[in-house]
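Could you join me in thinking about how sequence relates to backbone shape in a protein? Label the sequence line and the structure token line clearly, so we can match residues to local backbone shapes. Once you have written the record down, we can walk along the chain together.
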Amino acid sequence: MITSPIEEIKNRLDIVKVISSYIKLKKAGANYKALCPFHSEKKASFFVSPARQIWHCFGCQKGGSIFNFVMEIEGVEFGDALRILARRAGVKLKREDPKLRTERQKTYEICELSSRFFQRQLEGSKTGLEAKKYLLARGITEESIKKWQIGYAPDSWHGLSDFLVSQGYAREEIEKAGLAIKNEKGNFYDRFRGRITFPIFNLNSQPIGFGGRIFTQKESEEIAKYINTPNTLLYDKSRILYGLDKAKMEIRKRDFSILVEGYIDVIMSHQIAFENVIATSGTALTPYQLKILKRYSENILTAFDMDIAGDWATRRGIDLAQNLGFDVKIITMPEGSDPADIISQNQKKWKELVESSKSILDFYFETTFSKSDKKTPRGKKEISKVLLPVIKRIPNKIEQSHWIQQLSKNLEVREEDVMAELRKIKIEKPEIEVETLPPQKSRKERLEERLVTLILKSPENFSLISKKDFEFFSPLISETLSYLKKEIHHIENVKPPPELADLINYLFLKSEVEEISDQDLDKEFRICLTGIKTLEIKNRLNRISQEIKKAENEKDLPKVQKLIKEFDLFSKSLHNLREL
């Protein structure tokens, strides 16, 4: 009988389906494996057990249930993970006391209500209908307007704020959600006014922020074409990729993503079945965005309006992607056009541009040589100034040698001279987020875990543990072994008590993942057991040595003699173990 929403969610959702919606899983026997999304690695150490409905990374040691996974990958607390998974499972949670709702939860609610408010304004107000007419004229369909929840913010100082206040939210909370601004006099007014609104979604398709676009011609040129929600508890533009919630599965399927600059570029691309298109929300590529993208594919096509000689931020983002192991290609856009323009005019042309994308080095060479005269000394210098740092960053020396030859040939100069200039180039490595792995487990902890996994592989090993041996184990392992020994006849189907469940499920997964031949099981087990006893006896000898010194300082001779006898007994035990 299901007694709580947590158990109901766990029963309705399959952990493999939940996790595979975030990262690419591969079948590995009875389990699934992947590159860990929480730390950098080249060999998969992240495993998912469908039988036990748990996951664990044997590299960074993170693991647990679907709730732990969502908390880690979304960067949220348990309450938010519960709501995300409840929504996915179709489980209704009981209404909470409004006073107990967290600030984060209220921000989600404010964004959701604001999105609905803006959508109603697009469909129900006179100017909203004009905005909709503009969208349709741009080629955005009715279906896309609904799918992307496009709306209209009325040209009013307090339209949205007054609506949200009527729903029970304070103006300070609306400001914290990024939807209102407080002026110097302490008065609040709406951030988005007279603009088409584009909700920005998290990976679970919940609105967490907004972009607003001017669409009428009457506004002053000084007004920004686009404005965005500032950073809030939920929204950080350096960590968000617009459209990724809808594109992630297609990116994994096609094994590449297409990066564009605007919301409309994304929407128009999805309309014509290019559903692996996403936007960078007005920022150059950041380490956080790339780390998220890497879960789905290491291949990127960019459709930015790029000025390689002058657009330092864009180049830095591409350099960072290359440093993180991405294969980057460039879609060469016609001058003055963006993907939305091309798609609305000629869908076939967009497809051709994507298919004819160039490698990043080919693009750099082509654009740089087109802007300078390679025949003049000044032109040669300008070209080399742009291309030498690019060549310097190529990690593979054979590939680097190829591009040195190309530059030498195109500039009609000696390779030795190119090499000499290349040596002068100093490259600043882009800052990449430093990962902090948890402290390593002690040798005894590792041996104890190994011992239990070997028992789970071969329960017959229990016969090698004497009753006296249990005093050498840590309390938790001792309790775990005692429980498993009682359940030895149906060990594969045990349902451990809550206090032991996490550890036993993790050790079951570990026993399934680790490969060891049957003939080595007995030998490995004996080595582990001896190692645990040896370490524990050494620890006890160290403690007794400290106590002897203390007793000697206190001139407590009876205690000294007693401790020496104890020391000798443990020393003999250690000697006997070494003789085995």
